[in-house]
Amino acid sequence: MNIPSFTSIQNQVGRKEYNSLPSPGLCLPFLGHYTIFLETTEPLKRVWNLYKKYSKKGLMLMTVLGQNMVIVGDFDTLKQLFNNPDVQNRGHGDYKKCQIAGKVSMERGTKLQPLGGIFLSQGKIWSEQRRLTVKTLKDFGFGKSSMEEIIQDEVKQFINYIKQFNPTEPREITGLFTLPILNSLWKITVGESFAYDNPKLEKIHEMLGEFVKNIVHISTFLEIMYPWIFDLFPNFLNRQSNIDIHKSLASMMRESIDQHRKTLDVNSPRDVIDTVLIEIEHTEDESSSFYKETGYANLVNTLIDLFMGGSETTSTTLTWAVLYMVREPQVQRKVQAELDAVVGSSRPPTLADRPKLPYTEAVMMEIQRCGNIVPFALYHMSSIPIEINGLSIPANTMICPCIAEIQKGNHWKDGMSFRPERFLDESGGIKPNELLIPFSIGKRRCPGETFAMMEFFLFFTNILQHFSFLPEVEGQVPTEEYFAGLTVIPKPFKSIIMPRT
Ligand code: HEM
């Protein structure tokens, strides 16, 4: 029997354990439900519609290229699952059986080993690396600068950059925030910042862009589920270039770490790298993920993870923010009126103003709800069989939230409309809603949330203090159409960026 037919039979047999779970339509050998994605230009809407039709008790099973995944669209069910200590893995519990560990170890040029860093790690490595990252990103800053000052410096550079634009010429918005957001992240992690035309910044941007594109490419799924394809055809779907990008990114991080080691002052950390190097210096426990060479290897991975998690997500959120301001001019004017009344025009908005700007805050919440930029969050994997709502999810199943159902489903009544007032109470104060979960929920919830919200608030309020965003052609607003990658990015659109007098 050849390898592909053996694999398809194995998948069909494996699916018996999944019989209690509702599933949409025909599940083909090898492809599973993958054809569903080939039939549509709107894969996210397609999965959401299937969820609405086929789900039972908040769950729906899909099989894509051999990987079983349970889609969860009920908030309480998701909350239980993502808080369950046995639903916190990213791969098979035994790293030797984990194809993801095999793939990534190979790409990073190491032997098969448990994955380091935060994104893909699990167990002790994950909890240790995550704990320090959460603490560092919530901290007050580095050296003499607070986190807010670091972001404000970048905002200032960005405002000056936009001021040079010709206001009568419409500008492309998709991509506009990429370099400033990358720059502020590079500043807090590696301690350097660049002018936007610096070739090094452009190079980092290019490498990360390629890296992120490869993560969501079909070849990643194939490499994970059917590694034998790549044993037979090592350069199938351009695999070698994926490996090269991965290795160059890791070696760029290693170079920065080596430079920091030479100039480290343990009493005065300059950035995330220094903070972790100090932890490594203090670690004597050989089993710790911060111990000596293991510590440096984990630092490389953690840095890659911070860039992967923190650059495209935040810049895409800001792109959606401008898109909604162009589509909803009366909302834009109300935010500007609130900023004028509370902050005025003689100083930039600061984080201390945030509690005094409830309408602006409600608009930011509505942008995150409607933009829904990470629509399936990040999958978790069950390490043991899980019983939930009377259904069973076998061990080593991917579990993905359907955030669209939670953030926009029928329970919102007008969930498809952009209406910031839904987050305001009768007296105009903020009325939070637990169903707004752009950063996911539970034990793996985004560790960069505080930092991301600081950036979102400071960039959003500062640009609206200085500029108004108008449609490229009067009366024609951009659509909510998107490209789906690691995040959901609006299709390219232009806006006239008009300075406010
Ligand atoms: C608006 C911006 C952002 C959004 C919408 C966002 C969203 C998310 C989501 C949905 C997850 C998956 C959580 C889970 O597995 O349950 C996640 C994980 C993660 N995010 Fe963010 N994120 C943002 C910004 C950031 C920033 C600024 C950083 C770092 C500087 C960051 C670093 C990470 C990391 C390292 C993880 C993996 C956590 C883990 O596996 O334990 N994110 N993020």
From TrEMBL:
Heme binds at residue 446. Transmembrane segments: none annotated. SUPFAM superfamilies: Cytochrome P450. InterPro entries: Cyt_P450, Cyt_P450_CS, Cyt_P450_E_grp-I, Cyt_P450_sf, Cytochrome_P450_fam2. It comes from the Eukaryota. Belongs to the cytochrome P450 family. This is CYP3031A4. Its cofactor is heme. The lineage of its organism: Eukaryota, Metazoa, Ecdysozoa, Arthropoda, Crustacea. It comes from Eurytemora affinis (Copepod). Pfam families: p450. GO terms for cellular component: cytoplasm. One of its GO terms (molecular function) is steroid hydroxylase activity. Keywords: Heme, Iron, Metal-binding, Monooxygenase, Oxidoreductase. One of its GO terms (biological process) is organic acid metabolic process.
